[in-house]
Write a structure and sequence with these properties.
The complex is a heterodimer. Chain A is built from 3 helices and no strands. By secondary structure, chain A is mainly α. The longest helix of chain B is centred in the first third of the chain and has 18 residues. The chains are: A mainly alpha, B alpha/beta.
């Protein structure tokens, strides 16, 4: 289940925010601080997670740090499942 | 002692010739920003001084002296010349904040071509509209962004060259593409800098308006005069400063004060080319010992959100002066910065069209948190009556900000759109499109925009552009776009849509539409919220009444709705 969630998030991030030159994106790749996902785009990523997992992530918890890697995103999602 | 000394004294004795003399420029001389920011600094004995300290992801670092900048900008200029790029040709810079962007900017200017910087997060449509308007001859970009250029290439016969600065040979180059490696190319010691004059076209920045397509703001080499002096007096840059301007040169702050201002004075500047996080930024200030920091309200409010504890983990004692630009800096942010950094962020007000700072707070001047400050010496400013366009003499009464035309960095026109340019003037005043009032002490206070343009995170987004793009989505029948209040970004984009029959108005559709706009235009233009409606408010003639939705969103009076069609 956990691996599955990580893979789903990773796949979505690669599909939506990365291009062909952004190879080697992994569970630990810094997305926000690495500049792959900007703070505006983070809103759409949050919306994806909320739709996919039928949760509501309060804005106060949707910090750049919480969204910085697939690993940290998974931790965040699990808190609200 | 600050560079400006006494603001009041400067007002008494001001003339732009102060900057001309310091720069060794006389009326009629050649003036080339590229030369002033590199060759001249070397001639002043600073060839070995660091001009740029660049840091990318994983603390990857590059450093360039002013002599390196001189040589590399020569090399880029020479490369472009060999490609056949000529004086006045538009050359687009479409890159992340990498050294090639900063130095390439100077190279384009040295050649006498026009630098057209564009924000690298733009989607293919935003890119196409701007390249098409400018009929850009060449674009300098990176592998990670070239796919957007390739997608629209067939529609751009005028675009002759796509220059890749990080080509690694792993995949073949495609039509019109050519590789150029700035650091590895044989450096050109001597390049005959184009003999540009004060009114020669230098930079073409694009900005959004309420209606119509984005406008190309034409700047000239003489802009250097006010960019140099405002940098010196407001940002107070001194010889041993380490300067950090957080703006992206895809926008005007990143060129006026992220390239031209500091380098024309010969200052060492740092660039951090990673995404935002409070920890990253504080770490960068600590590591690079930044002394002067020019940032934006959105970033400052994000730092506030991260909390004071994160500040305490770092030694930020190198900071001696802070300033802000992009949108009005709220009083809370000024007070907070004074508390946690020991000094306030000084707000500066200007825009793409003005090219340099207009109303600002100054070192040594009493700061009123939340105020825009006072006019820069040489700038004749006022607040105008909204109907007669006569200056309002009564303090505290709101009106439109107006500036007397004639400062050096003022735009010369909108590219191929003189008609819209002329509409920016009333009764002899240039109108930047903002409302304000002046208090008893002569300080200006921002009230709001005078049009529907959305200021999100300090960047202007045209509601028209987003509405048009929304209509290109297969599910959207009608659209209206307004600003929505936002704690961090001041405003964000909100869209109201009606859907075509057969499409379901649910959360998944909202996400699809959001992502559609993000990729087509840019993340800034992506609606942060989409509200489905059965119908949108329209006039009897069928025009969507955006202001009704705006008023609803901001909890304001809707005003006259006599032209609203009946349900």
């Amino acid at each position: 289940m956990e691996e599955n969630m990580k893979d789903i998030i990773l796949e979505y991030v690669i599909e939506e925010y990365c291009d062909e030159e952004d190879d080697d994106v992994t569970y630990d790749t810094p997305l926000i601080s690495g500049g792959l996902v900007d703070s505006f785009s983070m809103v759409s990523l949050k919306r994806f997670l909320e739709n996919k997992y039928k949760i509501s992530i309060p804005d106060a918890d949707a910090s750049p740090e919480a969204f910085d890697t697939v690993n940290s995103i998974e931790e965040l999602v699990k808190r609200f499942l | 002692m600050s560079n400006i000394g006494s603001y009041e004294e400067r007002l008494k004795n001001f003339d732009w010739s102060i900057a001309e003399k310091e720069l060794g420029y006389k009326d009629g001389d050649n003036i080339n920003i590229g030369w002033y920011c590199s060759d001249r600094i070397c001639q002043l004995g600073k060839a070995d001084k660091l001009a740029l300290i660049w840091e990318g992801l994983g603390e990857k670092e590059k450093q360039y002296t002013f002599n390196d900048v001189r040589l590399r900008s020569n090399t880029i200029a020479s490369f472009l010349k060999d490609l056949g790029i000529q004086t006045g040709d538009r050359v687009c810079l479409f890159m992340d904040k990498i050294p090639e962007l900063y130095i390439g900017f100077l190279g384009i200017l040295k050649l006498g071509a026009v630098a057209q910087p564009l924000f690298s997060a733009f989607g293919d449509e935003s890119l196409h509209v701007r390249l098409d308007n400018a009929e850009t001859t060449a674009i300098i970009t990176q592998r990670k962004h070239v796919s957007k250029v390739r997608k629209i290439l067939d529609k751009m016969p005028y675009l002759k060259h796509i220059i890749l600065v990080d080509y690694d040979g792993s995949k073949p180059l495609r039509e019109r593409e050519i590789a150029f490696n700035m650091d590895e190319a044989e450096q050109v010691e001597k390049f005959e800098v184009a003999p540009t004059k004060a009114e020669s076209h230098s930079v073409l920045h694009y900005t959004s308006g309420t209606t119509g397509q984005p406008k190309g703001v034409k700047h000239v080499h003489y802009s250097l005069i006010s960019q140099y002096l405002t940098t010196k007096w407001v940002l107070d840059l001194q010889d041993d400063d380490i300067y950090w301007c957080t703006a992206d040169p895809g926008w005007v702050t990143g060129t006026s004060y992220g390239i031209i201002g500091p380098w024309s004075i010969g200052i060492t500047q740092c660039v951090l080319d990673t995404g935002f996080s409070a920890e990253n930024w504080y770490k960068f200030i600590q590591k690079r010992k930044i002394t002067m920091w020019y940032s934006a309200p959105t970033a400052i409010r994000s730092l506030m959100k991260a909390g004071e504890d994160s500040v305490k983990q770092f030694d930020l004692s190198s900071l001696r002066h802070l300033a802000s630009v992009g949108e009005p800096l709220n009083a809370e942010a000024v007070i907070w910065s004074e508390k946690v950094f020991g000094k306030p962020f000084l707000d500066t007000y200007w825009q793409t069209e003005t090219g340099s700072m207009m109303l600002t707070n100054y070192p040594g001047m009493k700061i009123k948190p939340g105020s825009m400050g006072k006019p820069f010496p040489g700038i004749i400013a006022t607040v105008l009556d909204t109907k007669t366009y006569e200056p309002i003499n009564e303090t505290g009464k709101p009106g439109l900000i107006g500036f007397k035309p004639g400062w050096p960095a003022m735009m010369r026109t909108y590219w191929r759109n003189e008609e819209t340019y002329q509409k920016k003037f009333e009764n002899g005043w240039y109108l930047p499109g903002d409302r304000a009032y002046i208090d008893n002490d002569g300080y200006y206070w921002f009230i709001g925009r005078d049009d529907d343009v959305i200021n999100t995170g300090g960047h202007l987004v045209s509601p028209f552009e987003v509405e048009s793009a929304l209509l290109e989505h297969e599910a959207v029948a009608e659209s209206a776009v307004v600003a929505k209040p936002d704690e961090v970004n001041m405003e964000v984009v909100k869209a109201f849509v009606t859907l075509k029959p057969g499409f379901v108005a649910d959360d998944d559709m909202e996400l699809k539409i959001m992502n559609f706009i993000r990729k087509k235009l840019s993340p800034l233009a992506m609606p942060q919220e989409i509200e489905y409606r059965d119908s949108l408010p329209k006039t009897r003639s069928g025009k969507i009444m955006r202001r009704v939705l705006h008023a609803e969103e901001w909890g304001e009076e809707i005003g006259d709705i006599s032209t609203l069609e009946d349900d």
